[in-house]
Amino acid sequence: MLRPARILNDIYDLFFPVMCPGCATRLSPNEQVICTECRHRLPETGYHRTKENPVEKMFYGRVKIESGTAFLLFHKKGITQQLIHHLKYKKRENIGTLLGMWYGHLLSESGFGNTIDMVIPVPLHPKKQRKRGYNQVSGFAKCLAGALRAAYREDILVKTDDTGGQTFKNKMSRWKESESIFGINPDIQLPACHILLVDDVITTGATLERCTRTLQKHKNVKVSVATMAITV
Known about the structure:
Elements: H1 4-15, H2 36-41, H3 54-58, E1 68-74, H4 79-89, H5 93-110, E2 118-121, H6 126-132, H7 138-148, E3 151-152, E4 157-159, H8 171-178, E5 182-184, E6 193-202, H9 206-215, E7 221-231
Parallel strand pairs: 1-7, 2-3, 2-6, 6-7
Antiparallel strand pairs: 4-5
InterPro entries: ComF/GntX_DNA_util-trans, PRTase-like, PRTase_dom
Family: Belongs to the ComF/GntX family.
Protein name: ComF family protein
């Protein structure tokens, strides 16, 4: 005999089915967040196993980072773009958590980041975070911190100006706008440490470069970077 709670759940699923953000098909009862087919189709980079990968090369001659990586390749109209769109604009925070748990396990298993002391997400401007209701990077970053057994802090790096969306801005305009919009919380004394700076998508690297420079104004602070995806 079916329990009343099971019956209610089945009725709810009938009228409000959970859809896969990658392909818009209905998830089966044993699937979580993303359907099985889309999980197999995710374009993983494998950068965490490779030195001098495209993320690290992006910062050559710009700013010193210890290491860099990205989980997925971001193609226009591809599955990664669909996932991140739903994460940012469709209230699907569980996508960030799923990707963070997945990639955190891979990073831990490979030894990437075994000297990381602290994980910090690239912050949103408070106005934008209030409007969205969350920072889309937080869930991903928290899971990386847990997997790497590092502290998670989102009260250290702050964004002081709202520049709007970055997706369609060229490299020069991104750099000019990001030049002075990040700062360190004046109430916090940042100790000597190795920080993993985390963002959603890396395109030109301008935002991560500016955040890294801001963090490195404090003595003996090392920075590595990790993102959900990199544009190709």
